[in-house]
Amino acid sequence: GLESNFPEFAWMSADDVARDGLRAVADGKAICVPGVVNKSLATVSTFTPRGLARRIAGLATRLR
Description:
It is built from 3 helices and no strands. The protein has one domain (13-63). The chain has helices at 14-26, 36-45, 50-63.
């Protein structure tokens, strides 16, 4: 299987992501950010300078 350095709580199952996406489509939403962790990161990223956000994203990609 796939191994990751991310904690278990940071992951969502494909079924959960699909359910949230389909619910968003049914509600007429153009954007869906599923999961508490993802929503939190999306919110925080709006206040983070782009250069810092790029560095953090790069680090997160390497941890995968």
